[in-house]
Specification:
Layout: H1 3-11, E1 22-25, E2 30-32, E3 46-49, H2 52-57, E4 61-62, H3 76-90, H4 99-106, H5 110-121, H6 125-142, H7 147-153, H8 159-165, E5 185-193, E6 196-203, E7 206-213, H9 216-226, E8 231-234, H10 240-253, H11 270-280, E9 288-289, H12 290-296, H13 303-311, E10 324-325, H14 338-356
Parallel strand pairs: 2-4, 5-8, 9-10
Antiparallel strand pairs: 1-2, 1-3, 5-6, 6-7
The structure holds zinc ion (ZN).
Zinc ion binds at residues 32, 36, 38, 63, 65-66.
Length: 357
Amino acid sequence: MNEAIAWESVLQRDASADERFFYGVTTTGIYCRPSCPSRKPKRDNVAFFSSIEAAERAGFRACQRCRPNRAKAPNSAVETARSYIDRHISDLSDERITLERLSEQSGMSPYHLQRKFKETVGLTPAQYVRARKSERLKDELKRGETVSRASFGAGYGSSSRVYEDAPTRLGMTPATYKSGGSGAHIDYIIAKTSLGSLLVGATNRGVCAVTLGDNAEVLEAALEREYPAASRKRLTEPWSALRNWVEAVVATVEGAGSRTDIPIDVQASAFQWKVWRELQQIPFGETRSYSDIANAIGSPRSVRAVASAIANNRVAVVIPCHRVVRESGSLGGYRWGVERKRKLLAKERATRGESTS
Ligand SMILES: [Zn+2]
């Protein structure tokens, strides 16, 4: 369990983390679900457990408010809708899955289903459909099927829709590997740029590491620290999707434009995703302050949590954390060197100036 991510889920009362772990408060001897509405404990007094049994073995008692030892009320309408979607995607059916259809199947009004589904699964039904299609597409591409066959197989009406739908939504699904990269294979490329060496690492689901540094050794050591349990391989001839991603990243590093459709495969809390997605909305060549971002995601009081989510970005440039600066206008920090941040912003402004004049 990544305790930093777990703690952030507790701070955000992230209900989507409820099935993943529990936390105990050492000062009270009580354990809770991440979403528990009770007052948040101090970080120092918290212990994390992957199961109820582990929490109780350690001597903690169940909280009376969030009742972590009782099964959450099963939401059968949502389950029915979800399995309907799963079945349809695996049937290769090209029938459009509408909210109305799901509503009929599950016996819940479209309005309530939409809300309940989002609450339970963390995605709307439409987002869930797209995420499942993207996953399926990736699987087929991995098996070496051609794009058009794979796209039909994944339930897309025509292959052009693949490019509309495949993008960052993939990042909405939790990474399949465990913390430290256990269970993942990462292929990576190291390229030279005007900002020094650039490493782009990817699983077959998307980009999981984009880092800048003085040389290849530094970047490889950092990749190993980040994903000690993954198998890692440096490539000189990238597979075609990886080559496209690398080209897009290099273009951004050189101030030649930026793309937000690169699939990202990193482990993160729902809150981190929210922050990162907001960063992707900052137009090329512009900057925002930490509190701008906190306001934009509707958590104006979470400036520090926003700053910490930004500091934990593992994919430079693809998630453009370099476009966030201090309120005062000073640059603030940058994981890959403040000087690189300054250059990135200067290049973006120069490019934007050219294209608007
Ligand atoms: Zn509780």
